[in-house]
Design brief:
By secondary structure, the chain is α/β, with parallel strands linked by helices. It has a single domain (about 15-95), classed as NAD(P)-binding Rossmann-like Domain (Rossmann fold). The chain is built from five helices and six strands; from the N terminus they run E-E-E-H-E-H-E-H-E-H-H. Strands 5-4-3-6 form a four-stranded parallel beta sheet, with helices on both faces. The chain has a two-stranded antiparallel sheet with strand order 1-2. Strand 4, helix 2 and strand 5 (about 65) form a beta-alpha-beta unit.
């Protein structure tokens, strides 16, 4: 692997998912991940409102949409999970994710 600018040459694309289909996901996070299409493959989105997840997936060309993180994690493996929900909801909505992997600066989210 060779690092050229911000691009990794000779490395497989990172398989990514987004949790949350709200404004921050649609306005900031998804567009940013799609801009990195040479390095990142955005393959799934999940929201407790499955209809919104499906609509967002269709709008951005994301191949899979889920209404449950439990279902998503049982069917998919990811290198990167972009959590686009309020910190107070992160632990609840991220069932199946190792809590040590949840970077939070909000004590309510990480139980401290």
């Amino acid at each position: 692997m060779e690092l050229v600018g911000w691009e990794c040459v000779g490395m497989e694309r990172i398989k990514a998912a987004v949790i949350g289909s709200g404004l921050i996901a649609q306005a900031r996070h998804i567009p940013a991940l799609l801009e990195m299409k040479r390095e990142v493959s955005l393959v799934a989105i999940c929201d407790k409102n499955e209809e919104l997840a499906r609509k967002t997936a269709s709008q951005f060309g994301i191949s899979k949409a889920y209404g449950s993180t439990t279902e998503m994690f049982s069917k998919e493996k990811f290198d990167l999970i972009d959590i686009c929900v309020p910190p107070s909801s992160a632990r609840r909505c991220c069932g199946g994710v190792n809590p040590a992997w949840l970077p939070c600066d909000d004590g309510e989210a990480n139980g401290t």
